């Protein structure tokens, strides 16, 4: 994401002009947008024209519209973002108050104006515009006949390809069909790696499977790389890392990222930090339950006691449409930071974020134990967007 213009201060009105440069930037933009914001962007509008003879025709024209945001729709697989709203600025093609849907495009700037810019939104802009925050980890999670190729970015887990090939069982006296099917499977996975992984950006490629599937695949991959003289694979061989997983399904990614060897290798990535923080929370909950709280009401009480060391909170809570509820989460984040605590905002598109959402989306590791809070949990603690 490129920051073109910024005229904002915390808790004040203002606007910012940004240009999304890659698919992940759409996810950042989705987290910046709220209903009631003003969005100005280039868009296509179908316009009807009437000639001097009275015949009516229609054409598509590109124009710049400013809409008051009414509906936000994000497709996480395609990373497409559509915003629907009413036109609030004079335009030769669109009447004031008319509805229009804008689909934000890569490499086309947009301007976002808000009445209040809170600390969470400002942090999101900073994160989105940081050139070091890229998809620097890839993972191939596989088992015989099934492989999921995933990119792990600081903000989301993107499934880039899924390979499924039926593998016949070995027959007594002949394994030919089995071996041919395995070669077809490995070839498809290899092509997926070459197509979807940018080796200039990715620092580490995790290859995970139960049993020896990963070892057999790696042997095939580099045997073929030598045969085909694939310089890109041969030059990047040190980036591949073999890890055990219980299955070839995407959900196995969490256990892979928990592996101490993987954690050490990925110590500088946000995704690994999130997984470790959640793992620490579960350990604390098991061994010292008075130092591990979850649910908004309990965590707020711990914050009032200045007891929070690490706050774990899901980003989908900040997309809450009720301003009062959203402000409550922002206030909690600000209080923890002001009191010297660490805040980890989890992406709801990461496996660790999905798990945190099941715990109401907010949890905390405390500096010192607090006796169990017996008050009933506030209903809003499990609010989701």
Explain how this protein is built:
The longest helix has 21 residues, at 176-196. It is built from eleven helices and 16 strands. The model is unreliable at 374-385 (pLDDT under 50). The two termini are 25 Å apart. With 385 residues, it is α+β, with helices and mostly antiparallel strands.
Concise synopsis of the structure shown:
The chain is of the alpha+beta class and 385 residues long. Helix 1 runs antiparallel to helix 2 and helix 9 packs parallel to helix 10. GO terms for molecular function: metal ion binding.
**What is the CATH fold-level name of the largest domain?**
Nucleotidyltransferase, domain 5
Strand order of the largest sheet: 1-2-7-3-4-5-6
Structural class based on helices, strands and sheet pairing: alpha+beta
Rg for CA atoms: 25 Å
CATH class value of the largest domain: Alpha Beta
Largest sheet: 7 strands, antiparallel
What is the domain tally?
3
Span of the ends, CA to CA: 25 Å
The proportion of residues in beta strands is 25-35%
